[in-house]
């Protein structure tokens, strides 16, 4: 990998850190939802929050790959493809919303 700085603002680093913070917040929320669901004996919310937890973990893994991919493409001047972490994070947050609805209706 080429370590040459192509952007003085280091935009890929800022973007990766922002997605990482969002994924970590989603993980903490999923863990809290799982604990709350177990306390209220809501198996459905525990299962849904577990899916959100898995999606958030996948987001962090995908972020690492995406960051390296972005750096390689930016240093070579090639365009960057579609954004994968956004889809995973959106799915995770949607799952957390469903778990919250299940808990509220319980």
UniProtKB/TrEMBL annotation:
Annotated TM spans: 43-63, 83-105
Entry membrane topology: Multi-pass membrane protein
UniProt feature coiled coil, ranges: none
Listed name of the protein: DUF202 domain-containing protein
Keyword Transmembrane helix annotated: yes
Occurrences of domain DUF202 (ranges): 7-71
InterPro entries: DUF202
